[in-house]
Design a protein that fits this description.
Aspartate Aminotransferase, domain 1; 6 strands; globular; six-stranded antiparallel beta sheet; alpha+beta; 25% strand
Amino acid sequence: MADQQLERVRRICETLPETTERLSHGEPTFFVRKKVYVMFADDHHHDGRVAVWLPVPPGLQEGLIASSPETFFKPPYVGVRGWIGINLDCIDDEDLDFYIEAAWEQIAPKRLASSREASRRTDIPPRPTPE
């Protein structure tokens, strides 16, 4: 199951510009340039979870955990910096994609993030004009 969950995370991360993957602390970790934005955690210290750890904007961690404690948790080490853990078997692909993209945008250099946003806006086809 962990391999399937890792492939799921990898598929999302690979769509984000300048993402690289390498092992860090024994687990697959995703970087934008040289900064971590997603850490995969497979039964970290026998906690029984297959999860990702990622940053969220300040003040969001507590609300997410309180609203859905089966999905979100405070991960060790990085939880004190406002990161959240997400149990991968408790979240659908659309929501996971949202949190991973938000983490990438938070960590990516501003110029890279804004250029991605600009290119996404140009990918939207124009609305047809009524005749």
